[in-house]
What does this fold into?
Amino acid sequence: MFIFESQLFPYIALVFLLVLLVFAFLLIKKYFLVKKVYFDLNEPYIPEQKKINIPDFEINYVDEGSGPTLLLLHGIGASLYIWRFLYKPLSQNYRVIALDLPGFGKSSKIVNQDYGLEAQCERVLLFLKKLNVSNTYIVGSSMGGAISLWLSLKHPNVFKKNMVISPATNKKLLKLNPQLIPFTSLASHLVNTKIIGLLQSKVVYNQSLVNKESTEKYLEPYDKQPNAIKTFMKATSILRDRRMPKCFKEITIPVRILYGKHDHLVPKKYMTELQKIIKGSELITDKKSGHHLMEDQPNVVYEQCVDFF
It folds into this structure.
């Protein structure tokens, strides 16, 4: 017996050494190979904006940095502007791509198009194909989180890991169909800096973020653009999709859910529900954030990205 154990000892020692080496490599990768960047909320930065065409739409986007690709998807009513505190630090580690989803920001707003889950996801895939991106990490906020989860469900070969920020994945968030409300076509004339500022105050916890510059940037896609309100209304079909969140139980890639404690739009119970539905997913709550964690606490989102991706 002693001889047998003696013969096994070199193999056991080798396995133990390999485990130590793997552990050491992971530590080195996390703390030395990945650049950690700390930055200031007072330093917003948006890379050069570009245009690319996919069928029926012109897409406005940014493409900055090098390394593994990281795709950022904004929520309903927003644009690539919401990631302004993250482009600079994330581009130190990743090739960061963010787009104005069709119907939003500076991308085409075509009223007679479908803006549901399948349609928007297909456009994101066409957009990535145009940029020769075959696989990527993905971060989605609110409605963008619902889109990113659907993409992860249907195309796990393209999307390696998914981080969602307060994803809008429960039909109870929007019980009424806004498209049925009379006179929605007149709403574009009522959108002004005061209304936009009020809406901003609901998505961020840090109210100093609601200022003249940011409000004007939020308003820009809607100013004198009546189609913007119409495409916004059509995109609410994603928030009312009755397949969510149960359909996401089939997701096989790693998912991390970020949530702001002061989120007044998405109740935490829906995030807890989603975390239970997606096997192996994580739910992390930040105590100093609202619905737009990427604006309230960009350092937190950056560190979560570096840790997760």
Remarks:
- The beta strands are 50-54, 57-64, 69-73, 95-99, 136-141, 159-165, 255-260, 282-286.
- The radius of gyration is 21 Å.
